[in-house]
Amino acid sequence: MNDDQLLRYSRHILLPQIGILGQEKLTRSRVLIIGLGGLGSPVAMYLAASGIGELLLCDNDNVDLTNLQRQTIHNTETIGMSKVQSATKAIAKINPEISVVPIQEYVDEKRLQKLVKEVDIVIDASDNFATRHTINQVCVTHKKPLVSGAAIRFKGQISVFDLSNSASPCYHCLFSKDGSNEDMHCATMGVFSPLVGVIGCMQAMEAIKILLNIGKTLNGRLMLLDGLTMEWRSIKLNKDPECNICGINNPKII
Q1: Angle at the Cα of 119 (from 115 to 121), degrees rounded to 5?
Q2: For range 179-183, the mean pLDDT
Q3: In whole angstroms, what is the distance from residue 97 CA to residue 4 CA?
């Protein structure tokens, strides 16, 4: 670690739980962020500032004026630009030392199989159940930790599914893929701008804790936030032995 890096990351290095060795581990880490919207914006910015060595940014959308109320990695000058390009430009200003891989496409399961296999952790900042379930299934296959967040109106939620641990529940244990869960989009339902910042920052925090193996993560817990009352609820999650994706009775699980 050179002198500039020692200065840039000095406040991390001062923390005994991180130190120089921990910071060097972050600089060797690879993280996949799926979705560069309201949640993905703070995730990408804080992971970049924290010195994650390589960020793979995945989003197939372009920046729109309506995004700017909450998607803080983008700005007025990048309207019309792809979100991955806009985010890459912003990250370069935050921390030019890290590597960014922009992936401007909607990733299907086949593409995710290749991407997830190559990273240390996956951040789900998408906005629909179909994508979340596909991400979860691939993370189960490759036993990769998954940090999942969501926000709509004034309510947010976050959980960690550490799929490197065979006892951990997966996203499907919480939300089964049976059609009973309906997507709610902020384009029709609305979303409180600072709420996505809170949840996204927590996703970045959980990711760093997992990478460094420090503290206690949200694995096996679902945190729910009501932004109007600022009340948090914590719900314990258990692995479903009959889960079609990760259950012990699932013949597809190796």
Answers
A1: 115
A2: 58
A3: 10
Q: In this predicted structure, what is the pLDDT of residue 176?
A: 83
Which superfamily is assigned to 3-236 in CATH? NAD(P)-binding Rossmann-like Domain (3.40.50.720)
Q: Which helix (H) or strand (E) holds 187?
A: helix 186-189
Cα of 214 vs its chain's centroid, Å: 18
Q: What is the pLDDT of residues 65-118, one digit of tens each?
A: 999 999 999 999 999 999 999 999 999 999 999 999 999 999 899 999 999 999
Residue 107 gets which letter from DSSP?
-
Residue type, 81: M
- The residues, ordered by sequence, that sit 6+ positions from 229 with a Cβ below 8 Å of its Cβ are none
Q: How far is CA 107 from CA 115, 123, 253, in A?
A: 9, 14, 23
- The β-bridge relationship of strands 155-162 and 221-226 is antiparallel
What strands, in cross-sheet order, belong to the sheet with 145-152?
99-103, 54-58, 30-34, 121-124, 145-152, 155-162, 221-226, 231-236
* 182 pLDDT tier (thresholds 50, 70, 90): low
pTM for the whole thing? 0.94
Residues with Cβ within 8 Å of 209's Cβ and at least 6 positions away in sequence, in order, are 215, 217
- Phi, psi torsion values for 78, nearest 5 degrees: -100, 10
- Alpha-carbon distance of 121 to 147, in angstroms, equals 8
User: Has residue 248 got a pLDDT over 80?
Assistant: no
